[in-house]
Amino acid sequence: MPMRSATETLKRISGRLYWDLKENLPLAYRRGDLDSQVRLTPPGDAYPVVGHFYKHVYNVIREYFESAGSSFEKVVPRRKILLANKVQYPDFAVEIILDSQVIGHVLFDIEKRCWRFRPLYHTVLRMVEQEEGFYARVSHDKITRGYVVKPGQLASARLPERDEYIALASRNLDYLGVGALLRNGRIYVLKSWRRVPITGLEGDPDWSKVVEAHYEYLERKEEEAISFLREIYAKYRLPVVVSFSGGKDSLVTLHLALKALGHENVKALFNDTGIEFPETVDYVKRTVEKMGVELVVANAGEAFWRGFSVMGPPARDFRWCCKVTKFAPTARLLKQLFPSGALSLVGQRKYESAQRAVSPRIWRNAWLPNVLAATPIQDWTAFDVWLYIFREKLLPNPLYYYGLDRLGCWLCPASEIGEFELARKVRNELYIKWEEELKKFAVKNNLGDEWIKLGLWRWVQPPNDILRLATNPSFTSSRGASVTWTTSDNTITFQLENTKQFPNIEKFRNILYTNKGAWEALKDVSISENKIVIELETKAEEYIEEFARVTIRSFYCAECLECANWCTSKAVQLDVKNGGIHIRQEQCVQCNTCNLKCPIAEYTLKLRLTH
Question: Which of 493, 466, 496 is CA-nearest to residue 480?
């Protein structure tokens, strides 16, 4: 989805948060004249700041003010209710909501490898008025974004010696802003805004008070979700499984499904990708046991590491990992348990991404055969989910208390470096292991230390806002199966490196049989060391992709068995002796589906044919 389209979509569906100015508590709905809307950055998916993350946020703010020789309590009061909302930034960043206001951003600076606080709005005003923290009062009536303030234009100031954000104000306090220190005492205005009236709030209620204020609101949310679940269950009459990842959204989905359909009609499915946090694996087992629901596990085993040895690191624009470790084992288990199909309930919400914002509430996944997916909480915000968890006294995954907003594979490339830093407090040894693997890959591809330090491994083509931080912005890494090819008239020559299975003609012919067209087009094939020469009855260009898929499946198989999930004739089996897969040709109908569904071939060819 194009960036502009994604941004517009998130603005359109952005969640709304209100604040009761009398009782000083957040609201998911407007309930009276003393409610004020909090201006959240889209998609406005605010969530409670609790546990260790609560301490972390206040520590970042405290360290910012202490570095200026100030006390933060004079500017930022401690409250029991604190919310965070993710904002766009090169890495992890959240806006912090306190007393009905966004008080600033807590962000991770990947260049300096540190946490920072960027004051905003009424925090900036308080800092200038009280002369606390790093501030500068400009001797102009107005300040604008992009303007460079010179030392002679300062009426009063306390400037940092190192790189810290500076609260700015015009002479009459009509305009406020935040700036960054340049050389020679100059200040660059990063953001500016016109001052608006701000009311100081009293009172410090806790989350139980917030839940109490949402009793009827949550009742309506629950009733709608339960009604939806009962309707689709009656309509499709399929066995029900809840995809329980151990995250907050799937926890609420499982709880709602049990309320709507009863324990006897619901199973919980956990996909153990082999790269889950141990805390999540333990949490899932304990939770389903406490809830009294049957647990089935789709276990990927070592599939990720087998895939990694062929494909290299997964990336946001190269997510082979989801197909190998999630969809393949999940589809295999569902096919085994429910050969006639299943209804999979997932905790998907539209506020999570632009793609999910436009997703229907009921759909079929292209990688899960014969499975109908549905989400009962598509229109719930993260704030709704957390309030419901508090109300129902459900126990969330303890990793949330460390600031991890989205749980899953601990090395997921969709994560920010700041999120990895938060997770290190729980499982540092996992990231030490991952960095060792990345270093091996970086050395092999001559990528340098910045490729790891800046998290550039998370993209095949890193975005410009990250690349600009690198001293050498040219990073070329070889990902996907190590196969290249050349053509000449009726001949395709494949050059192989680092194959998983030993190249031989028997293996190649066995898998080629699955593609009837390519099988009939073959005139001759020869293999010499790691080179395959294929002679065809027709022009080579007509069959490049078909023979490339067969070659990759023959010699780079990660044994995820996604191909077997789609084979209606049960012709695919593991090749125990030689590795990879073997085709029972007497059962194969030559439909070519298995070649099209191979994630190793699919993602390798996406790179080879589009770059």
Answer: 496
Q: How far apart are CA 128 and CA 131, in angstroms?
A: 5
pTM beyond 0.70, yes or no: yes
Closest CA to 605 of 523, 544, 564, 558: 544
Task: Tell the residue number behind the tokens 């022009």, with chain if given.
Answer: 539
Query: Sheet containing 135-138: which strands, arranged edge to edge?
Result: 148-149, 187-194, 175-181, 165-169, 135-138, 154-158
Task: From 429, 403, 424, 385, select the one nearest 92 (Cα to Cα).
Answer: 403
Tens digit of each residue's pLDDT (9 = 90 or more) over 485-536 = 999 999 999 999 999 888 999 999 999 999 999 999 999 999 998 999 999 9
| Cβ count within 10 A of residue 219 | 11
Distance CA 125, CA 174 (A): 10
Q: Which parts of 445-491 fold into alpha helices (H)?
A: 450-453, 464-467
Count how many residues are written for the chain. Answer: 611
Grouping H, G, I as helix, E, B as strand and the rest as coil, residue 589 is coil
* Of 348, 454, 486, residue with least CA distance to 406: 348
List strands edge to edge, sheet with 83-86: 47-48, 83-86, 93-98, 101-109, 114-119
Q: How many CB atoms lie within 10 A of CB 570?
A: 10
Q: How far apart are CA 360 and CA 350, in angstroms?
A: 9
CB 364 within 8 A of CB 5: no
Q: Is 317 helix (H, G, I), strand (E, B) or coil?
A: coil
Tokens in use for 207? 């989350």
| Cβ within 8 Å of residue 349, ≥6 positions away | 45, 249, 356, 375, 377, 378, 379, 380, 381, 382, 385
- 468 or 374: which carries more pLDDT confidence? 374
Q: Given the DSSP bridges, would you call strands 83-86 and 47-48 parallel, antiparallel or unpaired?
A: antiparallel
Q: How confident is the model at residue 199 (pLDDT cuts 50, 70, 90)?
A: confident
pLDDT tens figures, 409-444 = 999 999 999 999 999 999 999 999 999 999 999 999
